[in-house]
Structures are given as structure tokens and as C-alpha cells.
Design goal:
Blueprint (H helix, E strand, L loop, with lengths): L1 E3 L5 E3 L28 H4 L26 H6 L1 H10 L6 H33 L4 H9 L15 H32 L19 E6 L12 H7 L3 E2 H7 L6 E2 L2 H18 L4 E4 L3 E3 H6 L19 E3 L4 H5 L5 E4 L5 E10 L18 E11 L4 H18 L4 E5 L11 E9 L4 E10 L3 H6 L1 E4 L19 E2 L1 E9 H11 L7 E2 L13 E2 L4
Parallel strand pairs: 6-10, 9-15
Antiparallel strand pairs: 1-2, 3-12, 4-5, 7-8, 10-11, 11-17, 12-13, 13-14, 14-17, 15-16, 18-19
């Protein structure tokens, strides 16, 4: 077949082999909408994983992030993942996730096929035009960027070419929307669970160790609220008027006690090779989500800032987790150990009852948090190290406490395994949680985009390449509470109360309180 061109020349179309009849019939009925930007890199990657995006530079924009979830592994281990979801009492719809993944996988293959056909046609058509003629038509605005010979083809070919281009745009837009929906559902899947974790609710948690013994008193025991009132340490009433319920003023020696606890904790943890940090206390909501917390929704524990994408942190785990976001670390840098001081803010939605009175459950408090980035094969070792640090510190303060291996339903979404420490609180006449230590494996790092590059590749490639670097691996993250100040104040006041109403100061804290050994009534 030959066709006349606008300038009177003739071009043979037989060699172009334009197989327009093979284009998907669905193109004929596609509702072609506005032109969108080219498909994002996150969607163009292999469907087995969706990598996290790079940092958002615009301070006012909300980042649209993707977790590097291994969908193929989830599909291949469907039964184990489903059992894990049941054991954690999660409401994630795994069947919907897998259905969306299959749709995404098939649509992505279709997009790649059509894109390949479009590129092949464009390349063949480009080859049939002299460079000077192509340049002239470009300058005259007669050529599109994708199909340079559209102006030379007859009406039928022009229509088919436009359908191909517009159909691909529509498919890419559908793929983006499907990927967003897939991510939204899949990001709710909790981490897998350590095989030794007890299955069930909080009552199924197992005590692994009991340390010390409860103090014996020869006088009526007071709780921290009564002690604090007599020693003029707290003011809840004024704080309620100023800020609302579950806020407080620390006063007099309680302020010194908080500072002593923070400084003593930092000094003890730094001796073990941890780098001290203070952190931002406002973070982007996307960082909260990437760490596995839900900043919005029913019963959220997170305070969100209205008309912004920022939240108040509930723990320093969140900003420390984001410290190396979207990074590839050298293996020689690992482990990275941090100890961070911050104020923490929690809504405490649903909390009520006498067990939450006073300092036990409040909206704002000071806390020292430990955080470790390490290789995957080392995370269980460092989990044990964090628990040992907690045990040594609480033992040195003379507390009676127990360590619990928390049951599956009591694990947050990021935690592979979590150990809680509960200390005896005589005034409350029960054990109360003062600390926890969690191994989150690669759950957070897949969302935060934190990887490390091994020193050596596991298998030498027979092909020569530009680089012999080993492929990067996701780090494992761990976090543990070194000191949650209000709960520690409860423990110290109630366990070290004296018959005359004074409070003995444990020896390790005395150098941090000017050498004082007792907190007593002001004359």
C-alpha cells in the first residue's frame, strides 16, 4: 500500500507492518479523560514489590508513599499470613488484598504490552523519515512526540494511532488508582509473629522472669496521688483548667526527680554504646503511618494538627525511625544505636477507670527511648540486649518487676515480638507497665525505605557489570523504653515511701539530685 503525503512524496506502508487490528478492543469504548503525567516509577517496577518513594521536598505537600511490600511472598504464603491475621485479631481483608494484587499484576502486564507496541510503531515510523524533514515538521508543530508520522497517514491510521496513545494513558491512570487501592489495603497487614509468641489476648501473655520482691510496710500504704499532694509535687486541678483532664504540673522535687531520671537513664544507656538524641516532636503524618501507627481514625492515639499533614509524636520511636529514611547504609555502620529523649503526646482514647488515675495514663509525658537499626540476622540478639538493659536499670533502682512475652493480640502491627516490663506499684496494689521492647524486623524499614548494602554479594555473577556491589537489604528495627518518667515516678514514690511521709531516693539517682537522699515535706 502506498499513500500520498502532504508535500507530494509517496511512502510505502507495507514495510511498517502496523498491526492496528491487534490493539485491544477495549480501547474503542474507553472514556478518554484528561492527560495525566507518565506512570510513576513506583508502578513501573516489578509487581512483586512496590518501593517507597523519595522524600517530599515541598513542605506543604502530603507525601504519597508506597511500602515495599513483598506481595509475591504474601501470595505464596497465603495460609500462614491468614493465620497470623486471625491470631492478631486483625480485621484486614487478605482476600481483597490478593484480588487487588492479581488485578494489578494483570493490568501492569497489559500496560507494558501496549507500551511496547506503541514504542515499536513509533520507532518504525521514525526510521522512514529523513532527519531534515522530521525537523521541519517538528518546527511547524505537525508532529507529536510519540508518533512522528501521524500527519502523513490517512484518516483511518491517524484515528487508530490516537486511540493507541489515549488508551495507554487511560490504562496507566487505572493502574495508578489500582496501585493506590492495593497499597491502602496491604499496608494494614500486620507483621508476621515470632513462633514462640503466645496466641491469644493479653491474659495469654507469659511471664518469663520475676525480679526482686515487693516491699513490706508496717504502716498504711498511700498511692502516688496522696503522697504527691502531701509533698506538694503535683497539681492536676490547675492543669485541668489550663489544658484539660489528664494533664498535670510537676512541682518542686518532682521536677528534680524527672530531670534525675532522664539524665541517669541517658548516662547508663550511653555507656552501652548508644548515641544520644533529642528529636522533633512534630512529624509528618506519613512518617507516623510508615512506622505502623494510624494517625487518623477511630480510637487513634495520635494528635493530628488541623489543616496540616503533621502530628504530635506519641513516642520518639517515630522520629528516630525516620532518621535514616530513604537511605542505603553501609554494613560497617551497623548496628546504629540511639537513645532519644522527647516529650510524648497521646489521646488515650477509651482509657477510663481508677487504674488510669493520676500519672499512670496522661496526655503528655517525658520519655527516654532506645532504638536500633541492624542486620536481619542480628535483630533477635539485639532484642535480648534491649531487654537486658531494661532489666539491669530497673534492678539497680530496687524495683520488683516481671518480664512478659506479650500475646499475639496485644502486639502492635509493626511488632514481630514484644516483651513488656511490669513493676509493682504498692499504692495501686498491682503491677503496672513501665516499659516494652519490640523487634519490628523489616516491617518499618520497608515502609521507611531504609536498607543497607552487604560487604559482599552472596553469589558472584558470571556477567561483567559496572559494579560488583551486593544488592541492598532492608534493615531490621527495634525499639525499647528506657524510662517513661511518670510511671517511674509512681514506682519510686510508692515503693520508697516512709512512715513519716517522706520518700527515699534510690542510690543511683542521688548524684543526679545534688547528693540528696530523701524527698520530704516542705516546712
Amino acid at each position: 500500500m502506498k499513500m500520498g503525503c502532504l508535500n507530494g512524496t509517496t511512502i510505502s506502508l507495507s514495510c511498517l507492518k502496523l498491526a492496528f487490528p491487534s490493539y485491544p478492543s477495549s480501547f474503542q469504548n474507553l472514556p478518554f479523560r484528561r492527560t495525566i503525567k507518565p506512570l510513576s516509577a513506583a508502578v513501573q517496577t516489578s509487581p512483586a514489590t512496590s518501593p517507597s518513594t523519595t522524600k517530599v521536598e515541598d513542605q506543604g505537600a502530603r507525601s504519597h508513599w508506597k511500602a515495599a511490600i513483598d506481595f509475591k511472598w504474601i501470595k505464596d504464603n497465603k495460609e500462614a499470613v491468614a493465620a497470623n491475621i486471625r491470631n492478631r485479631n486483625s480485621d484486614v481483608d487478605l482476600e481483597l488484598v490478593l484480588q487487588l494484587y492479581d488485578q494489578f499484576f494483570n493490568l501492569q502486564k497489559e500496560v507494558e504490552r501496549v507500551r511496547g507496541e506503541r514504542n515499536a510503531v513509533a520507532n518504525k515510523m521514525k526510521g522512514k523519515m529523513e532527519q531534515f524533514e522530521r525537523q521541519r515538521l517538528i518546527e511547524e508543530g505537525a508532529l507529536g512526540t510519540q508518533l512522528p508520522l501521524l500527519c502523513l497517514l490517512d484518516t483511518r491510521v491517524l484515528h487508530a494511532g490516537k486511540n493507541l496513545k489515549e488508551g495507554l494513558i487511560a490504562l496507566e491512570e487505572d493502574l495508578l488508582k489500582l496501585n493506590d487501592k492495593l497499597q491502602l489495603e496491604a499496608q494494614r497487614i500486620p507483621n508476621m509473629t515470632h513462633p514462640h509468641v503466645p496466641i491469644g489476648g493479653e491474659d495469654s501473655s507469659m511471664t518469663t522472669k520475676l525480679v526482686g520482691s515487693a516491699p513490706e510496710f508496717s504502716f498504711p500504704v498511700k498511692d502516688h496521688l496522696e503522697l504527691g499532694k502531701e509533698l506538694c509535687l503535683f497539681d492536676f486541678d490547675t492543669a485541668a483548667e489550663v489544658s484539660g483532664s489528664k494533664f498535670y504540673y510537676l512541682k518542686n522535687d518532682a521536677v528534680l526527680l524527672e530531670m534525675a531520671l532522664v539524665n541517669w537513664t541517658l548516662s547508663e544507656v550511653m555507656k552501652r554504646g548508644f548515641t544520644p538524641l533529642t528529636t522533633p516532636e512534630l512529624v509528618r503524618s506519613s512518617i507516623v503511618e510508615k512506622c505502623g501507627f494510624q494517625p487518623r481514625g477511630n480510637n487513634t492515639q495520635v494528635y493530628s494538627i488541623e489543616d496540616s499533614d503533621q502530628c504530635l509524636i506519641g513516642t520518639a520511636e517515630i522520629p528516630v525511625g525516620g532518621l535514616h529514611m530513604d537511605s542505603i547504609l553501609a554494613e560497617t555502620l551497623l548496628p546504629l544505636k540511639y537513645v532519644a529523649f522527647s516529650h510524648c503526646f497521646r489521646t488515650e482514647a477509651g482509657a477510663a477507670g481508677s487504674a488510669t488515675r493520676g500519672l499512670y495514663r496522661v496526655h503528655q509525658f517525658s520519655k527516654v527511648e532506645m532504638f536500633i537499626f541492624c542486620r536481619s540476622e542480628d535483630s533477635e540478639h539485639y532484642h535480648e540486649e534491649l531487654i537486658k538493659i531494661e532489666e539491669d536499670m530497673f534492678s539497680s533502682l530496687g524495683l520488683h518487676f516481671k518480664i512478659l512475652d506479650m500475646a499475639s493480640e496485644d502486639l502492635g502491627a509493626p511488632a514481630y515480638r514484644k516483651f513488656d516490663v511490669e513493676a509493682w506499684m504498692p499504692g495501686l496494689e498491682r503491677f503496672g507497665e513501665i516499659s516494652s521492647a519490640s523487634n519490628c524486623t523489616d516491617y518499618q524499614s520497608r515502609r521507611l525505605g531504609i536498607r543497607y548494602r552487604p560487604l559482599e554479594a552472596p553469589v558472584a555473577s558470571p556477567r561483567k557489570s559496572k559494579s560488583n556491589l551486593a544488592p541492598p537489604q532492608f534493615v531490621h528495627t527495634l525499639n525499647a523504653t528506657a524510662c517513661a518518667v511518670p510511671r517511674m515516678i509512681i514506682c519510686l514514690l510508692e515503693n520508697y515511701q516512709q512512715e513519716d511521709g517522706s520518700i527515699l531516693i534510690p542510690e543511683p539517682l542521688r548524684p543526679f539530685m545534688g547528693g540528696r537522699s530523701v524527698i520530704s515535706r516542705k516546712s
